[in-house]
Structure formats: C-alpha cells, structure tokens
Specification:
single chain, 403 residues, 3-stranded antiparallel sheet, 13% strand, binds pyridoxal-5'-phosphate
C-alpha cells in the first residue's frame, strides 16, 4: 500500500523522524565520524557537537548540562535509574515504590529487583488513571530508597501530579524520585527544577527523533551505580562510545518540539476533543479511558463493548489506519492491558480497547474519515458477535451506556 493512502495514528508507539532531524543525522554520517574521546581534530569537532547536544537537551528541561546522560533508549534510562539507585543505596533500605500503570521498562525492572531481595509496593490508580498523593504518603517508609512514577501514561495519556508526588516523597522520606517522562517530552512542558524530580527518563523516538537514543537526567549529587561498565564516557557514568549522529538528532528534535509545543499542543487538543466527542456521539456502548482533561494532547483511548480490540485493529489496518490496542510492546500479546485493569475495567471491556495517538502531520480531514471507518467497523464486528446478539435479544445487559 502506498504511503499516501495510510493514516498513521500511533504516535505513542513511535514517530517518523522529521525532515530537519533526518538532515542533521545524515550530515553527521556524511561528514563527522570521529570519536569524541580522541585528542585530534576529528575527535574535537564531534566532542563539541556532543557538548552542544547535551546543552540543548538541558535547556529543554531546565537542567544543567552536567546532569544529562545519553543512553541507548528510554528502557535503558529506566533500568539505570532503578537498578543504579537500588544497588547504590541498598545499605539504607530495600523498599521501592512504583505504580500499577507504569511501562514494562519500569514494572519488569522492579519485578527483577524484587527477586534480588528488594521489596516493591505498587500504588493503585483511580478510574481515570491518577495516583492519589495520599496513597504515596502512606506507602513511604524509612527504608524507601526510590519512588518511580511516570509523568504521562503511554496507553491512556493521563498526566500524573508529579510536582506534588515528588514533594511528598522528599518531605516524608530520603527516597529519590524518578519519573519516566518518555511520553511527556515534546508533548507537555517539563522543568526539572519546578517538578523537583531527582531522575527522569527520555527517549528520542517519541518526538520525531531517532530510535536507539535516550537520556537520563540525574540531579547533581544523587548517587547511582553504573548500569554499563566500560570506558570513561559520560563522565565515567555510562561506558560505550557515544552515538553522536543519534544524539545530535535527538537534541534537534527536542529543541524543535519545545519551540512548536504551544501551537501544536493547542491544535492537537482541538482534534483530540473533537475525536472524543464524535466517537462518543456516534458509537453506542463505548467509554473514554483516561482522564478527560489531565491527558496528553494527542491521546484518545476508548473501550467498545461487545468487541475484540484485535479485530478492530486488523480491520482498521485494512482500511489504511494504524492504531493500537495498548502499548506497542504488549500489542502482540492477547492479555488485556495492565493499565486498564488497574483502572478497574473488567477484562472483557479492557479487551475491546483502542488507542489513537495523534501527531503533527495528522489533519482534521483524516480524522473525519477515520471516525466513519471506525463506526462501520464497530457495527460490523458487533453483527458478528454472539454477545451482541445476546444483548440485542435481552439476555445480557450493557455495562457501558453512553447513548
Ligand atoms: N516508558 C514509556 C512510558 C514508554 O512509552 C516507552 C516506549 O514506549 C518506554 C518507556 C521505552 O522507551 P524506548 O522504546 O526508548 O526503550
């Protein structure tokens, strides 16, 4: 199928590399191959570019350049924050707090630490996906060494009250506060000083930058063990020759995303809210997942009763639309989303979910075509569903009543 006939609506999974970033990366591959740790011109010129990229990323989140560490992806940053803190601080305590709705880069790392003798508490969320600050306060202990709570959820888009949660952590414990902001960078403002976080994870490919590059923000003075041991790169904190083209590309993408954010987020919020309204109006027995207003500008997530999410995805794909039933990493599995289950959705409703995440190249016209296709697909699938006929013939009741 030609690219023209496709409509990409899965920007939470990944984004296309924008032309300005591609140009920057290509320029690097064509002309600058030096190793920044070497002491001659080829090395010095890329060392300068690395320093500039570090300063650019620091500027985007109001950090000091010395607090920015380049990694290979958001997953590495999350692993480093958790394992690095756990092993550096294990004499002070072994208790870790996180939430039930984190990305698997956090959840599976915490599960692994649990097996190594650390102890984890998983905070609940409410029906909109919000963490209750009082729950965090109650869970903090003398031996809590790290709290990790995401800024914006990758499935339902709910934005957590990070400033308040970090303040509660610091007032009531000695724990570090880590925040997975992979979905938030480039979408909503991030100021590490204002938020009061100790560590933050970012990834290049969610904001029209390249895949395979991430950042860890680590507040000066905070102690974490290295995850990767090797050379003296990243001020002795992360061995491995720096991937300068991708780092420079990430920095370019982050600077552009920040510049464009005021206009672009306004535009996306209008499209997002139109889509939410239109789906609720035109398709019966559905429900918006995630907070109605404290949500990412580009995120729409719905459950449709009497439907399997996977079949919906296949039919939408056949009509040219790329969406997701949850996070990209779990969409290959048939388990319902752990995020929707944590928000209290029953299994059968969680199974019929669809995530639509808008991007800077989507248009209102595309969304109009999309809603019409979705409306028809939901009707077609319901016609084939035995549950739908049970419902039509009055043998079962609907759980989701929107019209
Ligand atoms: N954290 C969140 C919230 C994410 O959405 C993702 C990717 O989907 C990651 C972490 C992992 O990032 P990466 O793909 O760069 O490893």
């Amino acid at each position: 199928m030609s690219e023209k006939s496709r409509v990409y609506l899965d920007h939470a999974a990944t984004t296309p590399v924008r032309p300005e970033v591609r140009a920057e990366i290509n320029r690097m591959y064509e002309s600058f191959y030096g190793n920044p740790s070497t002491f001659y011109e080829e090395g010095h010129e890329v060392a300068d570019m690395l320093a500039q990229a570090r300063a650019d990323i620091a500027g985007v989140i109001n950090a000091d350049p010395s607090e920015i560490y380049f990694t290979s992806c958001g997953t590495e940053s999350d692993n480093w924050a958790l394992k690095g803190t756990a092993f550096a601080r294990q004499k002070e305590g072994k208790h870790i707090i996180t939430t039930k709705i984190e990305h698997h880069a956090i959840l599976h790392t915490v599960e692994w630490l649990d097996k190594q003798g650390f102890e984890a508490t998983y905070l609940d969320v409410d029906a909109d996906g919000l963490v209750d600050p009082e729950d965090l306060k109650a869970a903090l202990r003398d031996d809590t060494i790290i709290v990790s709570i995401m800024m914006a959820n990758n499935e339902v888009g709910t934005i957590e009250p990070i400033k308040e949660l970090a303040a509660i952590t610091h007032t009531n414990s000695r724990a570090y506060f880590h925040c997975d902001a992979v979905q938030a960078l480039g979408a909503i403002p991030i100021d590490v000083q204002d938020l009061g976080v100790d560590m933050m994870s970012f990834s290049g490919h969610k904001l029209y930058g390249p895949k395979g590059v991430g950042v860890m923000y680590l507040r000066r003075g905070k102690r974490v063990d290295n995850l990767l041991h090797g050379g003296a790169q990243e001020r002795m904190r992360r061995g491995g020759t720096e991937n300068i083209p991708l780092i420079v590309g990430f920095a370019k993408a982050a600077v552009l995303a920040k510049e464009e954010m005021p206009e672009e987020s306004k535009r996306q919020i209008v499209m997002r809210d139109w889509l939410i309204q239109e789906i609720s109006k035109r398709i019966p027995y559905c429900k918006l997942n995630g907070h109605p207003t404290k949500r990412l500008p580009n995120n729409v997530n719905f459950s449709f009763e009497f439907i399997e999410g996977e079949s919906m995805l296949l039919l939408l794909d056949a009509e040219g639309y790329a969406c997701s039933s949850g996070s990209a990493c779990t969409s290959a599995s048939l388990d319902p989303s752990h995020v929707l289950l944590a928000m209290g959705l029953p299994h059968e409703i969680a199974h019929g979910s669809l995530r639509i995440t808008l991007g800077k190249d989507n248009t209102q016209e595309q969304l109009e075509g999309f809603v019409t296709s979705l409306e028809n697909i939901v009707a077609r699938l319901r016609e084939m569903s035995p549950l739908w006929s049970d419902f039509q013939e009055g043998r079962i009741k609907a759980a989701l009543i929107n019209k």
